[in-house]
Design a protein that fits this description.
2 strands, 255 residues, mainly alpha
Length: 255
């Protein structure tokens, strides 16, 4: 398997028909209610990488690779404790929840999901607090890999598995729905921070981490590519299911 497969899948993801199917405020709400589980998943992946480079033990010892520890700590600083315009600090996941509420999306299921997770009730979280089949399948499969993969595979998923076109899609849909920064300030703040951090900071840091953990080793590089391809394929499957659900909902309105 070569990196050309990553390019092919990334292109397919960027041009996925789901984006054209999102046309209304109800569509935006439906998308965010599902996509929020992928945001949670991404936060878990980020912490999994941090735990490798900057592990948390009762008694501290120096990180084995201070440069990579610095890289991932910088990423986590922004993702887990970014600053809002009013001075508060929140994770991007929590910002996303607030953005969801601004546009009228339902956050009760995912908040309940996280509550169960925080008490170690993972099975219960999926069984009782994730009513969206596509989101459940996607999150279950990707969270499972965090405990199985080696660090080069985790970093590859982090580097390539994110969906960079989403902020542009949100912006386009916000315009269609008449959403403004005045009416939904956190929604737009989240979009702008996502674009800023992914493009200017976290993207380049992820590339450096991936280069460092593969160490020009052909086997490690191949495994990293396979992990990236797996992650992209799971995201495309997720998008396929959401697109089908949207189409079915719209068709039902005309039947």
């Amino acid at each position: 398997m070569t990196k050309s497969k990553i390019v092919e899948l990334t292109s397919s993801l960027s041009e996925h028909p789901l984006y054209q199917s999102l046309e209304s405020l109800a569509d935006l709400q439906f998308f965010m209610e599902n996509h929020v589980y992928a945001v949670f998943d991404f936060m878990s992946l980020t912490k999994g990488i941090q735990n490798h480079f900057a592990p948390i033990d009762t008694i501290w010892t120096p990180p084995k690779n201070p440069e990579l520890a610095r890289f991932i700590n910088e990423v986590v600083l922004g993702e887990e404790s970014d600053q809002l315009p009013d001075g508060r600090f929140l994770s991007h996941f929590e910002m996303y929840l607030l953005a969801m509420e601004e546009v009228g999306a339902n956050t009760i299921p995912v908040r309940t999901f996280v509550e169960y997770i925080s008490h170690g009730e993972i099975a219960k979280a999926f069984e009782q607090a994730c009513p969206y089949p596509a989101a459940k399948r996607f999150t279950k499969s990707t969270l499972g890999k965090i405990g199985e993969w080696e660090i080069h595979q985790l970093v590859a998923s982090f580097c390539y598995g994110r969906e960079k076109v989403i902020p542009k899609m949100f912006q386009s849909l916000a315009d269609k729905c008449g959403l403004t920064e005045e009416s939904c300030p956190l929604f737009f703040f989240y979009l702008n921070r996502h674009i800023e951090l992914d493009g200017d900071e976290h993207g380049p840091l992820a590339d450096k981490m991936l280069e460092a953990v593969t160490l020009s080793d052909k086997n490690l590089d191949e495994q990293a590519i396979e992990a990236a391809v797996w992650s992209l394929e799971r995201r495309i499957e997720f998008w396929n299911e959401l697109n089908t659900s949207l189409s079915d909902q719209k068709q039902a309105l005309y039947d």
